[in-house]
Fold:
Amino acid sequence: MITGPDLIRELSKRADTVIPHFFPQAKKVGKSWKMGDLEGNKGGSSGWFHSAKDGNLLCKDSSTSTTKNVLQMIHETVGGSWKDTFREAKDICQIKEVEPLHHRKVPEPPKVEVGNIRDTEVLKYFNSRGIKESTLVKYGVRSYEKNGKTYWTAPFHDEGGELRMLKFTALERQEGKKDIFSTDSYPSLFGVEQVQDSDFEVTITEGEIDAMSLHQIGCPTPVLSVPTGTGQMDWIDLCWTTLSRMTRINVVMDSDAPGQMAFEKISSRLGRSRCYKLQLPDVKDSNEWLVKAKPSAEDLHELIKHADTCVPSGISTANQYTRAVAQRISELETEEQNNKFMWPELKFAIRPSELTLISGYPSAGKSEYAYSCALHECMQNNRRAVFCSFEIPIQDQIHCMLWIHKGEKPTVHNHGEIIESLNDNIYFINPDTISSENPWDEIADNFEYAIRRWNCDLFVIDSLQFLSSKTDWSQQDRVIKAMAKWCISNSSSVLLICHADAKKDIAGSERVPRGVEDILGSQSIGACANNCIAIWRNLKKEREISEGKWEQVKNQPDGKFIISKQRTNGKTYFENISYNTSTRSFNLELPNHLDQNKYNLVVDEF
Structure:
């Protein structure tokens, strides 16, 4: 994930390239650069230097004593939006990041007539909760009447300031529950339009009223609110440009358990080192603090001053993991009762924090099985996946996935419709953007970006041989250990495609792999993985069919699905599978009757 602070560090390393590129009238004097002012004109009253504290590149105008960091300077020079600035800065740093298969549809501005709040029940309601009319006006709150009920409306804008959604909340609850509805969904941050180019800190609350409460108290930063409490976090993607450039994000969630879990989730997505948890004194939320304690701006400043991040310490006691253990037990019990693996007959799952190897001989169908498995996880279990293949072009990956997902060969006419049906669950890394020196490190950076921005938690790499030479066992050890550790640190699943060693037996690729020992490379590959899967293709059967011996081999399996290692429950499997070439689907059991006319001898290896 590339945030504003990350980008500043990368730009600072390239001072001699960055400065003359964006400020062509700057002149190098000795080891430093001089300009006439912060706008980059000729002269010598402004100078560039690296901060002694963190090494970041800064520019100071001696005549005004104004200092700005390199990213601010580029933004003011480039003009336009911060999105434009990030693109320019990443280009000069040669930073490429994962992109989605397609982008979310943006709704048209809602055409709903809403009323003013003066002398309305809405204003009386907010006054009873300590919120002034001036605060409501600043945040664009309005009144709305429907079916004899009064609602207050909260506007949600995109990062360009365009209104995209109205959220309506009834003043009176219905059977004890809030009556809430909205126009076409666009769950951005409430108040995001108030963030200015000069802001590098924001405060995020759990609700709109909480945000307005902290603003009214006198928060020194723009105060925003998540759109739907502690639930979904699509607002991170929709407000990514704004959030990514922040150096500090204050987070104020409710003091209940869901609020605290929300803080942990937000900080893991946006970066633990820049998310600060504000602890409100003995109250449930910010509005209760406003009404009961009537705090001053100084009181709020003290809370911000003493806020802390949730960077974990190295040593902890067992009781600190009580919640995590309970969650793990619940996950395993749910898996036992309702297995969501693509073949639920097998006691197996693509679990978070686990590295799963998928091995096989060349052209065995490893990649295609990985696509099938990942698509099932995305479409049936609502996960989001990132694919990084060094063997197969992205367009060919997509073609194969569309075929698997639709169950028929995609065409020029329907491929766009099929892509739309995948929603925003599928993302790809362009392998051309990954260097050959430390490919895993760069892939991990891209994966973490996808986690933070889109909440991806499933990652497919094809294949191990592109991360390390097959003869460099020490490098393989380093990569596989780092990958297994990464899965745990990021609560994510990785499917790593590996090659099996066909030379270990005289039968070559016609021998069914036995287990982890058949993986080509270091023994650490199988040892570090949580799960080891092998796909075997019955080439002998295909050969016999081509020779007209269908009757002799029709009851043989098309291949084998083998789980030789499963760390969570220890169960292993050695099962027959069939493959349908018309739908490109793997099936766990061999059908009783196969149609010889539909049997295709070629299993395309995408």
